[in-house]
Amino acid sequence: MTTLCGMGICVLLVWIAYVLMNPEKFKLSNSPGRRNSLTPLHVLGLLLGALFASAALAAGIQMNTELDSDLLAIIMGLTFPALLISGLPIAAYCFDDGAARGMGFTPRRWISDSIRSVITLFAVLPVCVGLLLATRWAIRQLNPDLLNTHEFLTILTRPETPIAWSVMVIAAAVVMAPIGEEILFRGLLQSMLRRYMGRPWIGIVLASILFASVHMAVPDSLPALFALSIALGYSYERTGRLWAPIMIHMLFNAVMIADAVTS
Q: Reduced to 3 states, what is the DSSP secondary structure of residue 95?
């Protein structure tokens, strides 16, 4: 992680220099438009519906079987993002050009988007790690009881965890969650906010606040996740396609899991 953050600081400094020389890129004044008829009911309905359905499924399973709590957490971790992916029909209906071209859920230009994703990950990683460490230090000083480890990381770091469970956790955290959450927070929420507010940056910031808020179970990660979300939202506005933020999100989760497991 130290090596990655060191490389990331170099990338971040180069990006800052580039933005200072090209301020219009940062202002997002020429970012691609995404015409849509989304309303808060579409976005909140999908979020609350996914939360309720995954909780109901977990409760139903728990009532009828003696299911291990770790496996129950894994099932919920897979179910929630899977339900968020059902936002694609909403996008197909609400975006003028459909889910693929309208929202940007398309592999078009995937090579350049993938390169952009790796560069963005390097730039945002030292910021997120720095915020994570600073927040953990502050919480230790104020109230150490608030420190909490994500349940998935707890499962992965247990020696007795079955390999099949580890595979499901990695699939949920590295594949399913980034796809589902980016459809909701970037594709639907940020697009809706941009249309209502008229300015891309307002949509990015508001979507990032909500993105961080839904991870309240791990309070020490909130500032870091807010910073990550800003990078995800900026990347989405620069390209108009979801592949870049999805891949950044995937890579970030993979790096954080690898660091937790190997440290």
A: strand
Helix (H, G, I), strand (E, B) or coil at 36: strand
For residue 222, the one-letter residue type is L
Confidence check: pLDDT of 165 > 90: no
Q: What per-residue confidence (pLDDT) applies to 102?
A: 92
List C-alpha distances in Å: 61 to 49, 51, 56, 58, 73.
Answer: 18, 16, 9, 5, 11
Helix ranges (DSSP H) in the chain: 2-21, 23-27, 40-64, 69-84, 87-94, 110-142, 151-156, 163-170, 177-182, 191-197, 200-213, 222-239, 243-262
**pLDDT for the residue 11:** 92
CA distance 92 to 101: 9
pTM of the model: 0.93
Secondary structure of residue 34 in the 3-state scheme? coil
Residue 251 tokens, joined = 């890579």
